[in-house]
Amino acid sequence: MTNRTISAFIFTLLLAFESSVAAMAFVQASVQDDPLLTIGGQTVDKDELIYLLSKGNKSEPGTPGMSREEFDENLDLFINYKLKVREAEALGLDQSEEFLREFESFRENLKAPFLIRNSLEEGELRKAYARMQDIIRASHVLLKFPPNAGKEDSLIVLRMALKIKEEVQKGGSINELALEYSDDPSAQVNKGDLGYFTALQMVQPFEDAAFSLQPGQVSDPVMTSFGYHIIYVKDRQPNPGQVHVSHILVRIDENTPNTEDLAKRKVADIYNEIQKESTVWEDIVKKYSEDPASSQKGGMLPWFSVGSMIPEFEMAAFSLTEVGEVSPPVRTRYGYHILRLEGRKALESFEAMEENIRSRILRDSRSTMIQSQVMAIQKSRYNFDENEGNVAKLRAELNNTTKNDFILAISEKNLAEDQLFTLQGKSYITKDLADYMAEEEISLKSKSGTFDAWYERFAASELNHAEEADLAANNKEYRMLLKEYRDGILLFSLMNEQVWQKGLLDTVAQKAFYEKNITDYQWKGRVNAYIIKILDMSQLDAARKLLQGKSLSDELIASFESSYDSSNSLAYQTETGIIEYSEHPVLSKANLNEDYQEIEANGHLHIVVIGEKIKPGPKNFEETRGLIIRDYQEYLDKNLVESLRKKYPIKINPKAKEETFIALNQ
Hints:
By secondary structure, the chain is α+β, with helices and mostly antiparallel strands. β5 (222-224) and β6 (227-238) form a beta hairpin. α18 crosses α19.
């Protein structure tokens, strides 16, 4: 068996966490029939060994498969592994609070990639990133619903929105229409022009509609929480990424007479000053910029992307192409700006942006949409059947009840046994909902009422339980991965308790082991030596003068190293100490009876000064304690396995063993 195969196998068993589901290669050739092993009466299926070895032995295509010898050695390791798990279970380690807490934490991480929600989130992430490849410039007219709007009010607003769309289609200006009709307060300043934006910068329905349009197209009325929008797309182009600028700001004070003219003249003078070759940008910024947040930092602003700044400033920034390029004065509602380009960078990769996109998606309405889609799929998959009549009755009776009074209310009104829904054939009643509410130490606020808020949460919880149970029962990859981590935690706990900590902390046992095996902890012949590798041959004579004819001592070493450190620190490389000489590349060539000698080794000349010679003999305990601990732990592990093989009878199914070997070599 190769070292690579053994190491990979052990590495797998000791739980190297692999976050990518793609790493969970599983050979499908095996057929579940007879178990591969029985250990102390418990069966072990061959799929488990195939799964673990498939992960640990990822050979290049075309390379030979696993040999019989390798397979037998891996099977033996696997049996040892399962024996330890069996013992951990017998000791009740799988029932300990620590195990249950750790395993539940692992389960939460492991199940995520397999859940329906994950695939839906992944789709939204990819869609958002695909949209981020473009930026859109759009204008809109917003028509808000009146307070406490009824159905007729909504229809009136919708008809008005359709009329505005028709006007735009006939050639009317969306911006003039926004100025006249829009309920967006900013329309009085920007005439409905939103500037450029990309994905995740608008509410989802608005974004969906805008990205479905090409330049020159107008949308149907789009309903958001703000009201109805008519959207007109003016431009669409590739996302320029991010830009880094510094700026000078000359403010406009609306309370000062002639403020506009004064600001114009001042910014023009500053701009002319910047054109002079002797001008230092940072000095001009400190002297003239009226932006207190950036003026003392050279006018530097953070990196930003499209849709992050007011449109006029943003368009000026992205129009700059060369680092150091300065823009003409730009008017915004804050005053006049002069911008200098400090850097540009393209849109980052999906991998680099994934977590940021995920965070933004989960903070906006997409999160609610994803949850609704998850529940719809779960309801269909797990035969969820709501008792609509009872739910409507309970809603009317209980929506105005507080959480604290809920149990009392259902008892007084004889509602506790009313059915809410069935899920996979099991019936859930109002009392189940009340019990769930009592266990949850949170308060829910909902415009719709107490019953609706808690009923939705309860149904989602039971649907999630159904999905997780389905995963564990029917998804082989998930089941195998979960079992691997469960058994791995138990293996670690047992080994830590009976091998690693015991071997590390029991000094009495360590010393007894050392004395019993002292022949394994022997020094070979040693010599006190000072070895100088000559790196600069021009310094050889200087070294000879200082060392030749001298006896080895701490004073000699200190004197030599002090002399070359101060004169030529790169001339020599030294080694000193009591060294085993038989396998040393330099000392193995030395005559230990000569105090001074020069030896060629590995392409370099070495000066060697020989001191006291020490005969072979035992190492003392402290000198070799690290090695003793390692060996003692291996001894404990070996004894543990031997005792477990006696305690738990092992039976190997020859037919299943052969099927396993064939599956691993396909």
